[in-house]
Amino acid sequence: MWSARLEGWRSQEMKDRMPNKLLKKWLIRQVEGPAYEWFMGQQETLIADPSARNLYITLGMIPRRLGKGDLQLSIEDLERADSIRPGWNPQYWSVDVAARVTTLLTTFDGRGDFAAAFVDVCRGADVGERMAYYSGLPLYAKPHTLNDQVAEGLRTNMRSEFEAIAHRNPFPFEQFDDHRWNHMVLKALFVDSTLYPIQGLDARANLELAQMLCDYAHERWAAGRSVIPELWRCVGPYAADTALEDLERVLGEGNPVSQQAAALALNACPASGAQDLLDTVPELRSMIASGTLSWKLFKDGARTL
After folding, report:
1. Eight-state DSSP code of residue 148
2. pTM strictly above 0.70
3. What would the pLDDT profile of 179-191 be if each residue is shown by its tens digit?
4. Is the N or the C terminus of the chain less surrounded, counting Cβ atoms within 10 Å?
5. How much is the pLDDT for 272?
6. Positions of the chain with pLDDT under 50
7. How far is Cα 162 from Cα 4, in angstroms, rounded to an integer?
8. What separation, in Å, do the N-terminal and C-terminal C-alpha atoms of the chain show?
C-alpha cells in the first residue's frame, strides 16, 4: 500500500511540483514582505542561472534574511503535507529549513546532477545546514542516488544531525536495505536517541536486527549499564530462545518502564512461551488489551513515562 501511494505521489509531484508550492505558501504567510520578496527574487535568479555561486549565496543568506523561527503549521497543514507526499512530516521544521529545502527544489527542478550537488552542499555545510538538507530528503527527485551521502550523515555523533535523517523521515524506510537500516536503528541507541519517531520501525523489523539488539543488551548488562526500554520493540516479533529469556529477565528485574516495554514485545511475539510469560504480568496484559499501554507512550522517550 505504501509503495502504491508513493508512486502516485511521484507522478503527481512531477506534474504539479506540489511540495515546493506548499512550502512557499507556508513561508509567505509567516515571513515579512521585504524578506519574502528577497527570497522569491533569489528563487527567480536560480531558475535563470542555477550556478553553484548563486545557490551557495542564497543558502548562506537565508537565516539572516528570513530568520530561524519555528514554522507555524496547523494540523491541516501537516495533513496536507502527508497527503501530497506520504510520510512527509515537517512538524518541527523552522523557517530557514523550509526555505533551504525550497531553494534546492527550485534549483534542481529536473535539471543537473542533484546527487553530486547534494554531496557538495553537505560537504561544505555546518551541522544546522546539513540538518536542513537532510530534512528535505522526502521531497528530492531520484532519492536512490542520495543513499551514500545519507549514510555518511548517519555516521555523525551529533544526535540532532542523526535525527534529521532518522526521525519523522520516510527516506530510510523506503530506501535503505536491511544492513543499513539495522545499523541506523542500533546507532540511534548509541547516540541516546529515541526510536519511536523512526518511520516504518515495525514494518522493517527483522531477525538480524533483533539479534543485534539482544547482543547490545547483553553488552550493556555485562558492563552494569541500563538498556533503553524501546529496544525490545524491535526484538518482540522475532524473540525466541535466548531473546525470550532476556524478556523474562526484564519482566522480573527491570524498572516499571522496562517491564512495560517487555510486555509489549511479548504481546507481539508469535513464539511458543511468549503468552505464558505475558500471563505472569496480568495487569500489563490487561493494559495492553484495553489500549492503555502501547508504544505510543514512548513517543517522547522512555524517560518521560
Report:
1. H
2. yes
3. 999 999 999 999 9
4. N
5. 85
6. 1-2, 4-5, 8-9, 12-16, 303-305
7. 28
8. 33
Instruction: Name the β-bridge partners of 70.
Output: 94
The amino acid present at 75, given as its one-letter code, is: I
Q: Which of 43, 39, 44 minimizes the C-alpha distance to 28?
A: 39
Backbone φ and ψ for 268, nearest 5 degrees, come out as -95, 0
Q: Which residue has the cell 504567510?
A: 29
At 281-290, the pLDDT tens digits run 999 999 999 9
195: closest CA among 207, 208, 177, 181?
181
Q: Report the alpha-carbon distance of residue 96 to residue 117 in Å, rounded.
A: 19
Query: What distance in Å separates the CA atoms of residue 263 and residue 248, rounded to the nearest whole number?
Result: 9
Q: How far apart are CA 107 and CA 44, in angstroms?
A: 9
The cell for 233 is 520493540
Q: Side-chain half-sphere of 217: how many Cα atoms within 13 Å? A: 26
Please report where in the chains the cell 508469535 appears, as a residue: 270
Instruction: For the beta carbon of residue 211, count every other beta carbon within 10 angstroms.
Output: 15
